[in-house]
Amino acid sequence: MTTPTDVSSIASEIRRATFTVRRRGFDEDEVVDYLSRLATTVQRLESENARLRADLSTERRAREDRGNEPISAQAVLMFAEAQKVADSLIDEAVTHARDLMMSARAQQRDIVREAHDAATEAVRKTEAVAPSSGEGAAAAYDHPIPEIEYVRTFAKVAQIQLRSVLDALTEQVDALGEMPRLEKD
After folding, report:
1. Dihedral sign from CA coordinates of 155, 161, 163, 166
2. Is residue 26 a part of any domain in this protein?
3. How many CB atoms sit inside 10 A of residue 42's CB?
4. How distant, in Å, are the alpha carbons of 77, 84, 87, 162 from that of 81?
5. Per-residue model confidence (pLDDT) at position 118
6. Per-residue pLDDT tens for 55-94?
7. Distance CA 130, CA 141 (A)
8. Cys-Cys crosslink for 11: which of 42, 85, 92, 151, Cβ 3.0 to 4.6 Å?
9. How far apart are CA 137 and CA 106, in angstroms?
10. Mean pLDDT of all residues in the chain?
11. Which residues constitute the domain of residue 113?
12. How many domains does the chain have?
């Protein structure tokens, strides 16, 4: 029996294969028929393999050609316009953030001033009710003064408002930091 040596000629080798004839062996017609079918199948697979290699080679060349194409003028203009829009949005966000920060600082100053004024007024009223005698005045305080509680509540509300303004500002700055990434195809 001969053995195929080259992968590209396996089908032809199968067709030309010869076997020694012996008694009590396989039916020669069945063996020839089987080898014929096997050779046809191998030939079909070789053809399909060659076609797939050609397709792969064509695809590689097409990819290389696409990779070497210059960027069109329209694409450059679109990227430039997108960059302008992005720069404009960033500038607008920075301006808006600056305005929010200035507003928050102004609110903070107003809140602190109002709290200071209310605290001063509460101290003045407390001193009017109980003469200042050092530790005796502190010991005389046994129930909450409404003005102090009001200032405390007002300060907490202002703190919550300021925190929400800062959170909104942080969200806007984070959203601007997420610029779309343009990828090469």
Report:
1. negative
2. yes
3. 19
4. 6, 5, 10, 37
5. 84
6. 988 888 887 777 666 667 888 888 888 888 888 888 888 8
7. 9
8. 42
9. 35
10. 78
11. 73-177
12. 2
Distance CA 153, CA 157 (A): 6
Tell me, what amino acid is at 167? D
Eight-state DSSP code of residue 58: H
144-163 confidence digits (pLDDT tens)? 677 778 888 888 888 888 88
Residues 167, 91 share a domain: yes
Structure tokens that stand for 14 in this block: 């199968």
d(CA 31, CA 28): 5
Beta-carbon contacts of residue 100 (< 8 Å; ≥ 6 apart)? 165, 168, 169
Per DSSP, 71 falls in state P
Domain boundary pick from 67, 84, 106: 67
Residue 52 and residue 87 share a domain: no
pLDDT confidence of 182, banded at 50, 70, 90? low
Give CA–CA dist 81/73, Å, rounded. Answer: 12
Same domain, 46 and 132: no
> Residue 38 is encoded by which pair of tokens?
């096997």
24 shares its domain with 46: yes
